[in-house]
Design a protein that fits this description.
Blueprint: E1 2-8, H1 12-25, E2 36-44, H2 49-61, E3 66-75, E4 83-87, H3 91-99, E5 116-120, H4 125-135, E6 142-146, E7 148-154, E8 160-167
Enzyme class: hydrolase
GO molecular function, one term: hydrolase activity, acting on ester bonds
Protein name: Putative phosphoesterase CIB95_01595
């Protein structure tokens, strides 16, 4: 059984911004490019993956492209010492996340959905505090249009790779 997840990879410009911090502050830097997780890790066996892909494809076709606006640096402290680029809630993004966590894809979620791009994690309290304070002074205002998302699977070395890319709005 393989581990899968669903994510949005932003533009190269936004990935470069995130990576300028991730290479120093995110131990997962080499495992996956900067992304917005819209469905956390789930396991599917080889026989059921076609069914999952068909459901995901159907959701993608009826979801229109939408704006992605990154507007702040935030943290999940005190739950975790994770620092992220905050993504504004958008009705279409929230509906997409909800749809991808329903039906055959439904699973219990440990946390409520907060769209973000992780730029630092697994830091000591002191490092987290120092890094967060300096990053909060950054002026962040980036907008782009999301027109696709990816179904990923995890390799044996822990890295993630694209299984399939889904274009948004083919039936809109």
């Amino acid at each position: 059984m393989l581990k899968y997840g669903i994510a949005i990879f932003p533009s190269k410009k936004l990935q470069d911004i995130a990576n300028s911090y991730r290479k120093r502050y995110d131990p997962h830097y080499t495992l996956i490019p900067p992304h917005i997780t819209i469905k956390g890790m789930f396991e599917v066996d080889d026989e059921k993956i076609k069914e999952v892909v068909n459901q995901v494809r159907s959701i993608a076709k009826t979801t229109p492209p939408f704006p992605l606006n990154v507007y702040k640096v935030g943290s999940f402290h005190p739950v975790t010492n994770t620092i992220f680029l905050g993504v504004k809630n958008h009705e279409t993004l929230l509906q997409l996340q909800s749809d991808l966590n329903s039906g055959a894809l439904e699973q219990a979620q440990e946390f409520s959905f907060v769209p973000h791009i992780t730029i630092g994690q697994k830091m000591s309290d002191a490092e987290h505090s120092d890094v967060l304070e300096s990053m909060k002074m950054m002026d962040i205002n980036h907008e782009e249009i999301v027109d696709r998302f990816q179904l990923l699977y995890q390799l044996e070395n822990g890295s993630w790779t694209v299984y399939e890319t889904f274009l948004l709005g083919e039936d809109c």
